[in-house]
Design a protein that fits this description.
By secondary structure, the chain is an alpha+beta fold. It has three domains: 165 residues, FAD/NAD(P)-binding domain (3-Layer(bba) Sandwich), CATH 3.50.50; 95 residues, no CATH class; 76 residues, no CATH class. The protein contains eight helices and 21 strands. Strands 3, 6, 7, 8, 14, 15, 16, 17 and 18 form a nine-stranded mixed β-sheet that branches. Strands 1, 2, 9, 10, 11, 12, 20 and 21 form an eight-stranded mixed β-sheet that branches. A hairpin with a 4-residue loop joins strand 10 and strand 11. The longest helix has 19 residues. It is elongated. The structure holds flavin-adenine dinucleotide. Flavin-adenine dinucleotide (FAD) binds next to helix 1, strand 2, helix 2, strand 14 and helix 7.
Length: 355
């Protein structure tokens, strides 16, 4: 029998960062992941944009989250011997006069992140009539490289299994969990979109959010910025660009859709002045929820069962900070930020008959 402190289900962004933090705390971990290429972390653009939404307001806790994320990805990259994060700007290429006016209005009260920028050089690459502004600093994180490098480390330490986990295979006691030949003091679910069908946490207020993006070759476009006009054009691997993403809350299947590809092509045909070729089409479900805040901590009825999930479309900024906080909570009992503590849903989680 193998004994570990933490059995972690899922090695996406959340399972990766939480397992690293737990190891740094001196705990032992074992991970299980089914290596799904359509998991959210495998298709995400990796952007941390401090000012989001149509109204361009600062993201929740961004003053703490952004520097913490930068420090974490820098340090993690150094440990793995790769570069995971780079600072960049988002060039907001306005599609309408209203968009430009809104930016200027917001800029007058938020000069930390919103700036004027040079206009003229961008007319070589883009067709636009309403000017360009800059959102900075932003971060661009190579999550796929981070997950792949960490997986190699875990494999070398025999600390990860590639398999599909089934909750029916666990026996839960008050102070430990048994799964096959593994005894763990806790099981922590980092199962992303799988959380909504997880029998321990399916009562949480999950929402369905299908996201699509295209991988595009644009040889003539400079690679040191993100370009945004509704969709974002983001530097990706192998000299390619990631172009996305959609939010579809009423989808009926998880296939890549011809309609999305067509809408992006229509925009690029007008917007881009340099040639492009579509190389790939990515699709995944975001682990989103009604509150847009993470779920972290232990189940109110099963203290050996925990969760780190619910990152929605902002996992890249939120996961480093809360992985650190959750690891300290699990190992030392320090409190969680109440807004992310899953026990805020104690009442609803306690109403279910767990049979
Ligand atoms: C198109 C798109 C673009 C995005 N862009 C950004 C962005 O630019 N910036 C940003 O901050 N966020 C972005 N996101 C959101 C981001 O991807 C998520 O917040 C984050 O990746 C969630 O990580 P996770 O580890 O919780 O989930 P996941 O990445 O889904 O990881 C869960 C892992 O658990 C595994 N798993 C699940 N169930 C089981 C099981 N039963 N057995 C074994 N393994 C299992 C899965 O295969 C997966 O490997 C985007 C998402 C999408 C879809």
């Amino acid at each position: 029998m193998m004994e570990v402190d933490y059995l972690i289900i899922g090695q996406g962004l959340c399972g990766t960062l939480l397992s690293r933090e737990l190891l740094r705390e001196g705990a032992t971990v074992r991970l299980i992941d089914d290596h799904n290429p359509n998991a959210a972390s495998m298709v995400a653009g990796g952007i941390i944009n401090p000012v989001t939404g149509k109204r361009m307001v600062r993201s929740w806790m961004i003053e703490e989250l952004l520097p913490f994320a930068q420090k974490t990805y820098d340090a993690f990259g150094a440990e793995l011997g790769v570069s995971l994060v780079k600072e960049c700007s988002i060039l907001d290429i306005h599609a309408t006069q209203e968009g430009r006016n809104l930016f200027m209005d917001r800029m007058s009260s938020d000069s930390d992140y919103l700036h004027e920028t040079e206009q003229i050089q961008w007319s070589e690459y883009f067709r636009f009539n309403y000017g360009v502004n800059e959102i900075a600093p932003c971060l661009l994180v190579d999550m796929q490289l981070m997950i792949a490098c960490w997986r190699e480390k875990l494999q070398a330490a025999n600390a990860i299994a590639e398999e599909v986990f089934d909750s029916a295979d666990i026996t839960v006691a008050s102070d430990h969990v048994m799964y096959k030949d593994i005894k763990a003091t806790h099981i922590i679910f980092c199962d992303g979109a799988g959380g909504s069908i997880n029998p321990y946490f399916d009562m949480l207020p999950w929402t369905a959010d299908k996201g699509e993006a295209l991988i595009v070759s644009i040889p003539g476009l400079p690679r040191n910025n993100i370009y945004k006009q509704g969709i974002s054009i983001v530097p990706w691997k192998d000299d390619l660009f990631w172009v996305g993403a959609s939010h579809d809350w009423k989808y009926t299947d998880m296939q890549s859709s011809a309609a999305y590809r067509h809408s992006v092509e229509t925009q690029l045909n007008y917007w881009l002045k340099v040639p492009y070729t579509i190389i790939d089409h990515l699709v995944a479900r975001r682990p989103a929820n009604m509150e847009r805040k993470p779920f972290a901590g232990l189940h109110p009825l099963f203290p050996a069962v925990g969760i780190f999930n619910g990152m929605g479309g902002k996992g890249v900024s939120m996961a480093p900070y809360f992985a650190h906080e959750l690891a300290a909570h699990l190992v030392h009992g320090t409190p969680l930020t109440p807004a992310v503590d899953v026990r805020r849903f104690a009442r609803i989680l306690s109403t279910k008959n767990y049979g």
